[in-house]
Amino acid sequence: MAKVLAALRQHWKKSTFGACLLGWGGHWLYGKHCDNLLRRAACQEAQAFGNQLIPATMPLKKATVFLNPAACKGKAGNLFEKNAAPILHLSGLDVTVVKTDYEGQAKKLLELMENTDLIIIAGGDGTVQEVLQEPGLLRILAAFSKIPIGFIPLGKTCTLSHTLYPESTNQVQHITNATLAILKGETVPLDVLQIKGEKEQPVFAVSGLRWGSYRDAGVKVSKYWYLGPLKTKAAHFFSTFKEWPQKHQAALMYLGPTERPPEEPEEKPSRPPLYVRLYRRLRSYWSFAKEFPQEVAPEDWEELKLSTIELSIATQNRQLDLTRTEDFMNICIEVESVSKGEFVHRGSQKMRDPHMCPEGSQHIQASRCILQLPEGTEGSFGIDNEEYEAMPVEVKLLPRKLRFFCDPRMREQMLQAAVP
């Protein structure tokens, strides 16, 4: 023992390095063991769904998974196979996986849509965008309101996961919780923005649109990877070297919120017999009380000239209110007079919450808006964290267009928050 202690004392640098390496290795192995325990518990819970008896005449539920293997720097495929796929298969679902890493998928997508009971998007914000932007889906987006959608967060940015699932620092737990939430069947309605240029096909977004200096600086953060935790502040700091203050000028026309119609019944009443339908048509035809067409009230557009450091148009999906009586999107026009220090500080906050509306900004609630940009305007929009060329656009709110699976605990929190 004395010889061992003497050797450790004589080679204390090597001993210290070896102890650190051993400690790190032990911590890594313990983390892997905990992840395996989480996977096992999730699979046992999923197996309870798979063991449920169903009538012999009832077919298995079919799930179509749109997987983006390139998400999370190419790790998404492995994450899905290790954490989500076993749960889905054990649950008794008939699973079809469609990889979104090749072109010409629209035809196959349309064929699968006709024979599926639920859709699962496995990836990040870019994968959600890619699925919604498929040309064929533009014609059948209405069908999405009847087909529930599940979201498995595998990408670098997963904005929807903040709304649908509890926060978790453990990636394996976050993925397994999201997959189990799909099996539990609780859903919430989410709004969609339809963003259309003058000649372009419409783009659909579930989070929103950003245009301005914070967004431009945010996309450059990855270039300063070598600065570690300071890369976000560095990207915004170097952005202030441009012309200051940075102004984005435009004209905005908008319509106010619309009243929410009552919920439609999930089950439609059965069709009446033929003789009843004939009687109703004849009574309607011979009725002397003619109904005069109602005059459609002209739309009351508001117009605004703006000069801002950043403009954002966002849905209410981030802070969902299931009991609201009006449908609208939030338009945030930030003041242009911002100091450079405040710009760097606020830019770091916007990396965590891109659609935050700082105090002092002009806040507008609208159901539809038209954004006119001056001729020769350069730059890009950020639509659900994807980059698009800046151009004049019309943004229309499609309220409660999609139904997404969510964790029952999150739905309960939304309902409790709505109760005064």
From TrEMBL:
Q: Does the keyword Transferase apply?
A: yes
Membrane topology designation: Peripheral membrane protein
CDD domains this protein is in?
GATase1
> Major location, coarse class?
mitochondrion
Q: What is its EC number?
A: 2.7.1.107, 2.7.1.138, 2.7.1.94
List the GO cellular component terms: mitochondrial inner membrane; mitochondrial intermembrane space
GO MF, any single term = ceramide kinase activity
Q: Which reaction does it catalyse?
A: 1,2-di-(9Z-octadecenoyl)-sn-glycerol + ATP = 1,2-di-(9Z-octadecenoyl)-sn-glycero-3-phosphate + ADP + H(+); N-(hexanoyl)sphing-4-enine + ATP = N-hexanoylsphing-4-enine 1-phosphate + ADP + H(+); a monoacylglycerol + ATP = a monoacyl-sn-glycero-3-phosphate + ADP + H(+); a 1,2-diacyl-sn-glycerol + ATP = a 1,2-diacyl-sn-glycero-3-phosphate + ADP + H(+)
Which pathway does the database say it acts in?
Lipid metabolism; glycerolipid metabolism
Query: Under which main EC class is this enzyme filed?
Result: transferase
PANTHER family named in the record: ACYLGLYCEROL KINASE, MITOCHONDRIAL (PTHR12358:SF31), SPHINGOSINE KINASE (PTHR12358)
The protein in question is named: Acylglycerol kinase, mitochondrial
Which gene specifies this protein's sequence? Agk
